[in-house]
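DATA SHEET
Item: assembly model
Revision: 1
Owner: S.N.
Input lines:
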Amino acid sequence: MRRFLLPLLIFVVLVGFLAVGLRLKPREVPSPFIGKPAPMFSVSQLHQPEANFSPSDLKGQVWLLNVWASWCVSCRQEHPVLVELARHNVAPIIGLDYKDGREPAIAWLNEHGNPYRLSIWDQDGKVGIDYGVYGVPETFVIDKAGIVRMKHIGPLTQTVVSEKIIPLVKELNGA
Amino acid sequence: MPKLISLVLLVLGLTLQVHAAEAQRVSDDPVLEAKVQSLAEVLRCLVCQNQNLADSHADLAIDLKNQVRDMLRQGKTEKQVIDYMVERYGDFVLYSPPLKTTTWLLWGGPFLLLAGGLGGLFVLLRRRREREEEPLDDVQRSAAKRLLQG
Protein backbone atom coordinates (compact mmCIF):
# COMPACT_ATOMS: atom_id res chain seq x y z
CA MET A 1 0.00 0.00 0.00
CA ARG A 2 2.81 2.39 0.89
CA ARG A 3 4.44 2.23 -2.51
CA PHE A 4 1.30 3.75 -4.05
CA LEU A 5 1.43 6.67 -1.66
CA LEU A 6 4.20 8.61 -3.40
CA PRO A 7 2.77 8.37 -6.96
CA LEU A 8 -0.63 9.34 -5.56
CA LEU A 9 0.89 12.36 -3.83
CA ILE A 10 2.66 13.42 -7.04
CA PHE A 11 -0.61 12.98 -8.93
CA VAL A 12 -2.51 15.16 -6.47
CA VAL A 13 0.15 17.90 -6.68
CA LEU A 14 0.06 17.74 -10.49
CA VAL A 15 -3.74 18.00 -10.55
CA GLY A 16 -3.46 20.98 -8.21
CA PHE A 17 -1.05 22.77 -10.53
CA LEU A 18 -3.18 22.01 -13.59
CA ALA A 19 -6.34 23.20 -11.85
CA VAL A 20 -4.68 26.53 -11.02
CA GLY A 21 -3.26 26.74 -14.56
CA LEU A 22 -6.73 26.32 -16.08
CA ARG A 23 -8.06 29.25 -14.07
CA LEU A 24 -5.31 31.65 -15.07
CA LYS A 25 -6.15 34.11 -17.80
CA PRO A 26 -2.92 34.72 -19.68
CA ARG A 27 -4.67 37.05 -22.12
CA GLU A 28 -5.45 39.48 -19.33
CA VAL A 29 -2.13 41.16 -18.84
CA PRO A 30 -2.23 43.11 -15.58
CA SER A 31 -2.03 46.80 -16.39
CA PRO A 32 0.95 48.60 -14.92
CA PHE A 33 -1.19 51.76 -14.90
CA ILE A 34 -3.36 50.85 -11.93
CA GLY A 35 -2.64 53.45 -9.25
CA LYS A 36 -0.74 55.67 -11.67
CA PRO A 37 -1.82 58.87 -13.41
CA ALA A 38 -3.64 58.32 -16.70
CA PRO A 39 -1.37 59.36 -19.59
CA MET A 40 -2.09 62.83 -20.90
CA PHE A 41 -3.05 63.54 -24.47
CA SER A 42 -4.89 66.14 -26.44
CA VAL A 43 -6.62 64.70 -29.46
CA SER A 44 -9.29 65.77 -31.87
CA GLN A 45 -12.86 64.74 -31.08
CA LEU A 46 -14.74 62.36 -33.31
CA HIS A 47 -17.83 64.49 -33.89
CA GLN A 48 -16.14 67.88 -33.66
CA PRO A 49 -12.77 67.58 -35.38
CA GLU A 50 -11.87 71.15 -34.54
CA ALA A 51 -12.31 70.58 -30.77
CA ASN A 52 -9.76 68.68 -28.71
CA PHE A 53 -10.20 66.61 -25.60
CA SER A 54 -7.67 66.04 -22.87
CA PRO A 55 -8.05 63.95 -19.67
CA SER A 56 -7.38 67.11 -17.66
CA ASP A 57 -10.78 68.42 -18.86
CA LEU A 58 -12.42 65.91 -16.53
CA LYS A 59 -10.28 66.53 -13.48
CA GLY A 60 -12.44 66.38 -10.36
CA GLN A 61 -14.75 63.75 -11.84
CA VAL A 62 -14.71 59.98 -11.87
CA TRP A 63 -14.95 58.90 -15.48
CA LEU A 64 -14.64 55.90 -17.77
CA LEU A 65 -12.47 55.63 -20.85
CA ASN A 66 -13.78 53.00 -23.25
CA VAL A 67 -11.65 51.95 -26.21
CA TRP A 68 -13.80 50.98 -29.18
CA ALA A 69 -13.85 50.88 -32.97
CA SER A 70 -16.42 50.34 -35.67
CA TRP A 71 -14.43 47.35 -36.98
CA CYS A 72 -14.37 45.67 -33.58
CA VAL A 73 -16.80 42.77 -33.32
CA SER A 74 -16.65 42.39 -29.52
CA CYS A 75 -17.52 46.07 -29.20
CA ARG A 76 -20.88 45.26 -30.70
CA GLN A 77 -21.34 42.70 -27.94
CA GLU A 78 -20.56 45.12 -25.11
CA HIS A 79 -22.33 48.12 -26.63
CA PRO A 80 -25.81 47.54 -25.11
CA VAL A 81 -24.15 47.30 -21.68
CA LEU A 82 -22.48 50.67 -22.25
CA VAL A 83 -25.69 52.26 -23.50
CA GLU A 84 -27.47 51.01 -20.38
CA LEU A 85 -24.63 52.28 -18.16
CA ALA A 86 -24.82 55.71 -19.80
CA ARG A 87 -28.61 55.82 -19.29
CA HIS A 88 -28.11 55.42 -15.53
CA ASN A 89 -25.69 58.33 -15.52
CA VAL A 90 -23.15 56.54 -13.36
CA ALA A 91 -20.16 58.41 -14.71
CA PRO A 92 -19.25 60.21 -17.92
CA ILE A 93 -18.01 57.73 -20.50
CA ILE A 94 -15.40 58.96 -22.95
CA GLY A 95 -14.90 56.86 -26.07
CA LEU A 96 -11.51 56.29 -27.62
CA ASP A 97 -12.16 55.44 -31.24
CA TYR A 98 -9.13 53.30 -31.97
CA LYS A 99 -7.62 53.12 -35.48
CA ASP A 100 -10.87 53.85 -37.21
CA GLY A 101 -12.21 55.98 -40.00
CA ARG A 102 -14.20 59.04 -38.94
CA GLU A 103 -17.18 58.29 -41.17
CA PRO A 104 -17.67 54.58 -40.38
CA ALA A 105 -17.24 55.38 -36.69
CA ILE A 106 -19.96 58.04 -36.72
CA ALA A 107 -22.23 55.78 -38.77
CA TRP A 108 -21.64 52.95 -36.29
CA LEU A 109 -22.65 55.17 -33.36
CA ASN A 110 -25.75 56.34 -35.22
CA GLU A 111 -26.75 52.74 -35.79
CA HIS A 112 -26.01 51.28 -32.36
CA GLY A 113 -26.56 54.30 -30.12
CA ASN A 114 -24.02 56.65 -28.62
CA PRO A 115 -23.30 56.11 -24.92
CA TYR A 116 -20.33 58.48 -24.93
CA ARG A 117 -20.27 62.03 -23.67
CA LEU A 118 -17.77 62.42 -26.47
CA SER A 119 -15.38 60.26 -28.39
CA ILE A 120 -11.85 61.08 -29.36
CA TRP A 121 -10.47 59.99 -32.67
CA ASP A 122 -7.23 58.03 -32.38
CA GLN A 123 -6.62 57.44 -36.05
CA ASP A 124 -3.12 55.95 -35.89
CA GLY A 125 -3.46 54.28 -32.47
CA LYS A 126 -0.89 56.49 -30.73
CA VAL A 127 -3.09 57.20 -27.73
CA GLY A 128 -3.86 53.48 -27.64
CA ILE A 129 -0.17 52.64 -27.36
CA ASP A 130 0.20 55.28 -24.65
CA TYR A 131 -2.53 53.55 -22.65
CA GLY A 132 -1.09 50.08 -23.24
CA VAL A 133 -4.10 49.01 -25.31
CA TYR A 134 -3.58 45.66 -26.99
CA GLY A 135 -7.08 44.37 -27.49
CA VAL A 136 -10.22 46.33 -28.20
CA PRO A 137 -12.51 46.80 -26.30
CA GLU A 138 -10.81 47.92 -23.12
CA THR A 139 -12.23 50.08 -20.34
CA PHE A 140 -10.41 52.23 -17.80
CA VAL A 141 -11.87 53.74 -14.62
CA ILE A 142 -10.16 57.03 -13.81
CA ASP A 143 -10.66 58.84 -10.52
CA LYS A 144 -11.05 62.52 -9.60
CA ALA A 145 -7.30 63.05 -9.40
CA GLY A 146 -6.76 61.46 -12.81
CA ILE A 147 -5.41 58.17 -11.43
CA VAL A 148 -6.26 54.93 -13.25
CA ARG A 149 -8.12 52.72 -10.76
CA MET A 150 -9.19 49.80 -12.87
CA LYS A 151 -8.78 48.35 -16.31
CA HIS A 152 -11.07 45.81 -17.90
CA ILE A 153 -9.88 43.96 -20.97
CA GLY A 154 -12.42 42.57 -23.39
CA PRO A 155 -16.15 43.28 -23.66
CA LEU A 156 -17.91 44.61 -20.58
CA THR A 157 -20.64 42.39 -19.26
CA GLN A 158 -23.58 43.27 -17.05
CA THR A 159 -21.88 41.33 -14.24
CA VAL A 160 -18.63 43.26 -14.49
CA VAL A 161 -20.52 46.54 -14.59
CA SER A 162 -22.80 45.86 -11.62
CA GLU A 163 -20.26 44.01 -9.46
CA LYS A 164 -17.08 45.92 -10.18
CA ILE A 165 -17.49 49.19 -12.05
CA ILE A 166 -20.57 50.69 -10.37
CA PRO A 167 -19.35 49.92 -6.80
CA LEU A 168 -15.90 51.29 -7.65
CA VAL A 169 -17.31 54.50 -9.16
CA LYS A 170 -19.54 54.97 -6.09
CA GLU A 171 -16.60 54.41 -3.76
CA LEU A 172 -14.39 56.84 -5.69
CA ASN A 173 -17.16 59.45 -5.79
CA GLY A 174 -17.69 59.14 -2.04
CA ALA A 175 -14.02 59.55 -1.26
CA MET B 1 -1.64 26.39 -73.59
CA PRO B 2 -2.83 30.01 -73.34
CA LYS B 3 -5.07 28.78 -70.53
CA LEU B 4 -2.08 27.32 -68.71
CA ILE B 5 -0.09 30.52 -69.12
CA SER B 6 -2.90 32.63 -67.80
CA LEU B 7 -3.27 30.28 -64.85
CA VAL B 8 0.44 30.57 -64.04
CA LEU B 9 0.22 34.35 -64.33
CA LEU B 10 -2.82 34.36 -62.06
CA VAL B 11 -1.03 32.32 -59.39
CA LEU B 12 2.04 34.53 -59.66
CA GLY B 13 -0.16 37.58 -59.35
CA LEU B 14 -1.80 36.19 -56.24
CA THR B 15 1.51 35.46 -54.52
CA LEU B 16 2.78 38.91 -55.42
CA GLN B 17 -0.28 40.39 -53.79
CA VAL B 18 0.29 38.41 -50.61
CA HIS B 19 3.84 39.73 -50.39
CA ALA B 20 2.62 43.23 -50.95
CA ALA B 21 0.26 42.94 -48.01
CA GLU B 22 3.08 41.93 -45.69
CA ALA B 23 5.46 44.66 -46.70
CA GLN B 24 6.23 46.94 -43.79
CA ARG B 25 7.34 50.47 -43.40
CA VAL B 26 11.11 50.49 -43.15
CA SER B 27 13.61 53.29 -43.30
CA ASP B 28 16.66 53.49 -45.54
CA ASP B 29 19.04 53.54 -42.62
CA PRO B 30 20.41 49.99 -42.12
CA VAL B 31 21.91 50.80 -38.70
CA LEU B 32 18.55 52.03 -37.44
CA GLU B 33 16.79 48.99 -38.93
CA ALA B 34 19.24 46.62 -37.20
CA LYS B 35 18.52 48.35 -33.88
CA VAL B 36 14.76 48.14 -34.45
CA GLN B 37 15.12 44.46 -35.30
CA SER B 38 17.18 43.66 -32.21
CA LEU B 39 14.67 45.45 -29.98
CA ALA B 40 11.74 43.76 -31.73
CA GLU B 41 13.28 40.42 -30.84
CA VAL B 42 13.24 41.07 -27.10
CA LEU B 43 9.74 42.59 -26.99
CA ARG B 44 6.65 40.42 -26.85
CA CYS B 45 3.68 40.85 -29.14
CA LEU B 46 0.67 41.18 -26.84
CA VAL B 47 -1.82 39.87 -29.37
CA CYS B 48 -0.05 36.61 -30.21
CA GLN B 49 1.64 36.16 -26.90
CA ASN B 50 4.15 33.49 -27.81
CA GLN B 51 5.75 35.57 -30.53
CA ASN B 52 8.06 38.52 -30.32
CA LEU B 53 7.45 41.72 -32.23
CA ALA B 54 9.91 40.75 -34.95
CA ASP B 55 8.06 37.52 -35.79
CA SER B 56 4.54 38.84 -35.49
CA HIS B 57 2.44 40.26 -38.29
CA ALA B 58 -0.35 41.43 -36.00
CA ASP B 59 -1.41 45.05 -36.51
CA LEU B 60 -0.41 45.99 -33.00
CA ALA B 61 3.04 44.43 -33.46
CA ILE B 62 3.59 46.51 -36.57
CA ASP B 63 2.41 49.66 -34.76
CA LEU B 64 4.72 48.93 -31.85
CA LYS B 65 7.63 48.31 -34.20
CA ASN B 66 6.92 51.66 -35.86
CA GLN B 67 6.80 53.23 -32.41
CA VAL B 68 10.22 51.71 -31.61
CA ARG B 69 11.58 53.04 -34.92
CA ASP B 70 10.17 56.53 -34.30
CA MET B 71 11.61 56.66 -30.80
CA LEU B 72 15.06 55.52 -31.96
CA ARG B 73 14.96 58.08 -34.74
CA GLN B 74 14.22 60.77 -32.16
CA GLY B 75 17.48 59.78 -30.51
CA LYS B 76 16.08 57.70 -27.65
CA THR B 77 18.38 54.98 -26.32
CA GLU B 78 17.43 51.31 -26.42
CA LYS B 79 16.94 51.32 -22.67
CA GLN B 80 14.55 54.27 -22.93
CA VAL B 81 12.50 52.42 -25.54
CA ILE B 82 12.31 49.29 -23.38
CA ASP B 83 11.38 51.34 -20.31
CA TYR B 84 8.65 53.05 -22.35
CA MET B 85 7.17 49.68 -23.32
CA VAL B 86 7.40 48.25 -19.78
CA GLU B 87 5.73 51.39 -18.40
CA ARG B 88 2.75 50.74 -20.68
CA TYR B 89 2.48 46.99 -20.96
CA GLY B 90 4.29 45.77 -17.81
CA ASP B 91 7.10 43.25 -17.50
CA PHE B 92 5.03 40.91 -19.66
CA VAL B 93 6.17 42.80 -22.74
CA LEU B 94 9.73 41.60 -22.15
CA TYR B 95 10.28 38.32 -23.90
CA SER B 96 12.68 37.13 -21.22
CA PRO B 97 11.31 38.05 -17.80
CA PRO B 98 13.53 40.17 -15.52
CA LEU B 99 15.02 38.61 -12.39
CA LYS B 100 13.27 40.05 -9.35
CA THR B 101 11.55 38.88 -6.20
CA THR B 102 8.35 37.88 -7.97
CA THR B 103 10.20 35.88 -10.63
CA TRP B 104 12.93 34.12 -8.64
CA LEU B 105 10.95 30.86 -8.61
CA LEU B 106 10.65 31.03 -12.39
CA TRP B 107 14.41 31.38 -12.83
CA GLY B 108 15.45 29.24 -9.86
CA GLY B 109 12.78 26.53 -10.32
CA PRO B 110 14.75 24.37 -12.80
CA PHE B 111 17.80 24.44 -10.52
CA LEU B 112 15.64 23.53 -7.53
CA LEU B 113 14.25 20.58 -9.50
CA LEU B 114 17.77 19.55 -10.52
CA ALA B 115 18.97 19.71 -6.92
CA GLY B 116 15.93 17.70 -5.80
CA GLY B 117 16.57 15.06 -8.47
CA LEU B 118 20.25 14.77 -7.60
CA GLY B 119 19.40 14.51 -3.90
CA GLY B 120 16.85 11.78 -4.61
CA LEU B 121 19.34 9.87 -6.76
CA PHE B 122 22.00 10.14 -4.07
CA VAL B 123 19.67 8.77 -1.36
CA LEU B 124 18.53 5.95 -3.65
CA LEU B 125 22.07 4.89 -4.58
CA ARG B 126 23.21 4.98 -0.96
CA ARG B 127 20.29 2.91 0.20
CA ARG B 128 20.96 0.36 -2.55
CA ARG B 129 24.63 0.10 -1.64
CA GLU B 130 23.79 -0.40 2.02
CA ARG B 131 21.48 -3.24 1.09
CA GLU B 132 24.11 -4.88 -1.12
CA GLU B 133 26.77 -4.77 1.55
CA GLU B 134 24.63 -6.52 4.14
CA PRO B 135 26.43 -9.85 4.91
CA LEU B 136 24.49 -13.12 4.61
CA ASP B 137 23.48 -14.83 7.81
CA ASP B 138 24.15 -18.55 8.48
CA VAL B 139 20.79 -19.78 7.25
CA GLN B 140 21.13 -17.88 3.94
CA ARG B 141 24.73 -19.07 3.57
CA SER B 142 23.82 -22.73 3.93
CA ALA B 143 20.84 -22.26 1.61
CA ALA B 144 23.16 -20.79 -1.01
CA LYS B 145 25.65 -23.60 -0.58
CA ARG B 146 22.92 -26.16 -1.07
CA LEU B 147 21.78 -24.46 -4.26
CA LEU B 148 25.31 -24.28 -5.64
CA GLN B 149 26.01 -27.90 -4.94
CA GLY B 150 22.80 -28.82 -6.71
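QC remark: The two ends of chain B are 90 Å apart (CA to CA).
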